[in-house]
Design a protein that fits this description.
The two termini are 24 Å apart. The chain is built from 10 helices and no strands. The longest helix has 33 residues. The chain has one domain. It is an all-alpha fold. 72% of the residues lie in helices and 0% in strands.
Length: 253
C-alpha cells in the first residue's frame, strides 16, 4: 500500500497527467458533441456516441508513457530503485495506479460522450443501453484505456526517452497499422491482427442491427469475437509490460 501511495503522489504532483486527462475528456467529448449535434439523418445508435474514443486513448497512453519516462529524465527513478532494490515492486505499483486512473478516465470519456449524445442528438431513441452489447460499447472503453496504459508503460520503460516512447506509440497506432494494409498480398492478413485494429472490434463489434441504418455500421474486423479481441489486446499489452520488467531488472538505471 505504501508503494501505491508513493506512485499516486508522484503521478499527481506533476502537471502532465492533469493536462492529459483534461485533453482526453475535452477532445473526445467535444468531438462527439459536434457529431451528435449534426446527426440528423437517422436515430443515433450507441456506437455512434463512442466513435471518437480513440482520440482520448492515445492521449492517455502518452500520459502513461510520461509517468515512467519522466522519472528517467529527472533521475528520480534512481532514488526509487535505491529505496526498493528489487525494482519490480515500484513498477508494478505504478502500473496499478496508472491503469486504474486510465480506466476511470476511459469511463468518464465514454459516459460523457454518451450523455452528450443523448442530450444533443435530434433523435436519441436508439441511445438507451438496453443490452449487454450496448453496455460493452460504452463501459468497455474504460477497459481498453486501462490496457492501453499498461502497454504504454511497457514501451516507456523499455525506451526511457519521452520523445522516443511517445513517437513509437503514436506512429504505430496512427500510421503503421493503416499503412501495413497496403503491403501486397499479405497486408490485409497482417492488418487484421494488429492490436489497435483488433481491439476496435471489442468496442464496435456486434452492434444491434436494428439501431443502424441499412448498410451502415463499422466494418467487420478480425477473426475474434469482441471479448476475445479485448483479451488479445490486453495480452499483447501484458507481454510488452513483462518484457519491460525483465529489461529494467537487468540493466542499469
Amino acid at each position: 500500500m505504501t508503494l501505491l501511495a508513493v506512485e499516486r503522489i508522484k503521478l499527481f504532483t506533476t502537471r502532465s497527467p492533469w493536462w492529459c486527462m483534461l485533453l482526453a475528456l475535452g477532445l473526445t467529448v467535444g468531438l462527439t458533441s459536434i457529431i451528435a449535434a449534426n446527426w440528423d439523418n437517422a436515430p443515433m445508435p450507441v456506437i455512434g456516441s463512442v466513435f471518437t474514443h480513440t482520440f482520448g486513448l492515445y492521449v492517455i497512453m502518452v500520459m502513461a508513457a510520461l509517468a515512467v519516462t519522466t522519472e528517467y529524465r529527472f533521475g528520480t527513478i534512481k532514488a526509487t530503485f535505491q529505496a526498493v532494490p528489487d525494482r519490480i515492486s515500484p513498477l508494478v505499483a505504478k502500473a496499478v495506479v496508472v491503469s486504474l486512473l486510465a480506466g476511470l478516465v476511459g469511463e468518464a470519456v465514454a459516459f460523457g460522450s454518451w450523455g452528450m449524445s443523448w442530450v444533443l442528438a435530434q433523435d436519441n431513441s436508439q441511445l438507451a443501453l438496453n443490452s449487454a452489447n450496448d453496455w460493452r460499447h460504452v463501459a468497455g472503453i474504460g477497459l481498453v484505456y486501462a490496457a492501453g496504459a499498461i502497454l504504454a508503460l511497457g514501451v516507456g520503460a523499455l525506451v526511457r526517452q519521452t520523445a522516443g516512447a511517445v513517437s513509437i506509440i503514436l506512429v504505430f497506432a496512427l500510421v503503421l497499422e493503416s499503412v501495413v494494409g497496403f503491403i501486397p498480398n499479405i497486408g490485409d492478413d497482417i492488418q487484421k491482427w494488429m492490436p489497435f485494429t483488433v481491439v476496435s472490434k471489442f468496442i464496435f463489434g456486434d452492434p444491434d442491427a436494428s439501431s443502424l441504418p441499412e448498410g451502415a455500421g463499422p466494418p467487420v474486423v478480425g477473426e475474434l469475437p469482441p471479448w476475445g479481441s479485448f483479451a488479445y489486446f490486453a495480452g499483447i499489452a501484458l507481454v510488452i509490460y513483462i518484457i519491460s520488467l525483465v529489461v529494467v531488472k537487468r540493466r542499469d538505471a
